[in-house]
Design goal:
Layout (H helix, E strand, L loop, with lengths): L1 E5 L4 H11 L5 E6 L19 E5 L5 H7 L6 E4 L6 H6 L2 H20 L4 E7 L23 H20 L3 E6 L1 E3 L8 H10 L4 E4 L5 E6 H14 L5 E4 L4 E3 H12 L6 E4 L14 H7 L7 H14 L1 H7 L2 H11 L2 H6 L2
Parallel strand pairs: 1-2, 1-4, 2-3, 4-5, 5-6, 6-10, 7-9, 8-12
Antiparallel strand pairs: 9-11
Helix pairs in contact: 1-7, 4-5, 6-8, 8-10
This protein binds nicotinamide-adenine-dinucleotide and thymidine-5'-diphosphate (TYD).
The site of nicotinamide-adenine-dinucleotide has 30 residues, from α1, α4, β5 and β7.
Length: 341
């Protein structure tokens, strides 16, 4: 099966490409713009001999997408996105361009080129916040709170409409928070690990009692493979591993694994419209496709923390001048930055 993978140089996309190429019978064209989040070092070691080919391009460009969609493509697995909530709060325009217009451009190209399958990779954040008990099901209303989540919800609705209107073979997935190797250290876990390794403060927003439903990226990739092969066209599948933890628990555990003091934890000004809690019901995926997660949060976090500790060159490479500029924008004078929004 020949796949066009968008955003394959990012965190989940690169893990997916490595995973899928370790199985038999796949060829991958990786189409990625290489924004600040895209990094070809995430795919080091892969070459043409591995049934792998890279094209640098923008999903929002009709011409560039047309150039990548050769007639042999059987399916598109669409990861490319602006993916970080804090960046979307600073400036939402790139999120609308890539996540909304880019997705529509890709859906249109798929339809015109007769691509039979389109896996649209989305997020549980489109459902908004679940402050009490319960879990999001695929029928929960869409109630996004950040510009990032709103742009993903818009893309989900376009994907739905392309299925309903044109019969495009779209399947949409909504996964909880991923962690694992190759994640850009703007997200909670790699940011906390890399700061702890440098004995820098671990900034927890608000009271630190916000919860996320964590899943190891390889469990997500295995779910996507099952959905690619057997998911029902037009359906939405939630993906989750019952990995609910507060941010404070996560920070403490990272410090414990590294043998560092909890004094490094620093409570900082909260994120605006910060969703209190996410929790994902993935029984549709489990019952219909027989998927279940294999990696417990404790085991996966241990292995992930060790991965960042053992790959200092990768970490230094992504924490470049641009990253330091971003870090100062979001964390330096945090109270003042937020009040000026
Ligand atoms: P990421 O930010 O690590 O990677 C995004 C990739 O998309 C990068 O390689 C970047 O260069 C590429 N890209 C950005 N704009 C592009 C454009 N205009 N054209 C082509 N490529 C472009 O993101 P991630 O964490 O790997 O997330 C991948 C997908 O999974 C996203 O759609 C995200 O919404 C979704 N998702 C992420 C999580 C999570 O916890 N990280 C959870 C659920 C769903
Ligand atoms: P994040 O990794 O940005 O993912 P998302 O907001 O998309 O779920 O954040 C995960 C949680 O961690 C969220 O509740 C915000 C919180 N957080 C902090 O407390 N401090 C930080 O420096 C970051 C990046 C996140």
């Amino acid at each position: 099966m020949k796949l066009l993978v968008t955003g394959g140089a990012g965190f989940i996309g690169s893990n997916f490409i490595r995973h899928i190429l370790s199985r038999r019978g796949y060829q991958v064209v990786n189409f990625d713009l290489l924004t600040y989040a895209g990094n070809l070092r995430n795919l080091a070691g892969l070459g043409a001999g591995d049934d792998y080919h890279f094209i640098r391009g923008d999903i929002a460009s009709r011409q560039q997408v047309a150039g990548a969609l050769d007639p042999g493509i059987d399916a598109i697995v669409h990861f490319a996105a602006e993916s970080h909530v804090d960046r979307s709060i600073l400036d939402a325009s790139a999120f609308v361009r890539t996540n909304v217009l880019g997705t529509q451009n890709l859906l249109e190209a798929a339809r015109r080129n007769g691509v039979s399958r389109f896996i649209h990779v989305s997020t549980d954040e489109v459902y908004g916040s679940l402050p009490g008990g319960g879990e999001f099901t695929e029928d929960s209303p869409l109630a996004p709170n950040s510009p990032y989540a709103a742009s993903k919800a818009a893309a989900d609705l376009l994907a739905r409409a392309y299925h309903r209107t044109y019969g495009l073979g779209v399947v949409t997935t909504r996964c909880g928070n991923n962690y694992g190797p190759y994640q850009f250290p703007e997200k909670l876990i790699p940011l906390m690990v890399s700061n702890a390794l440098d004995d820098e403060p671990l900034p927890l927003y608000g009271d630190g009692l916000y919860t996320r439903d964590w899943i190891h990226v390889l469990d997500h990739c295995r779910a996507l493979e099952a959905i690619l092969l057997k998911g029902r066209e037009g359906a939405v599948y939630n993906i989750g591993a019952h990995g609910e933890r507060t941010n404070l628990e996560v920070a403490r555990r990272i410090l414990g694994i590294l043998g560092k003091s909890e004094d490094l934890i620093s409570f900082v000004a909260d994120r605006p419209a910060h969703d209190r809690r996410y929790a994902v019901d993935s029984s549709r995926l489990r019952l219909e496709l027989g998927w279940s997660p294999r990696i417990s949060f404790e085991e996966g976090l241990d292995e992930t923390v060790r991965w960042y500790r053992d790959h200092p060159q990768w970490v230094d490479g992504v924490r470049s001048g641009d990253y330091r500029h971003y870090y100062r924008m979001v964390y330096g004078n945090r109270d003042r930055t937020l009040s000026s929004l």
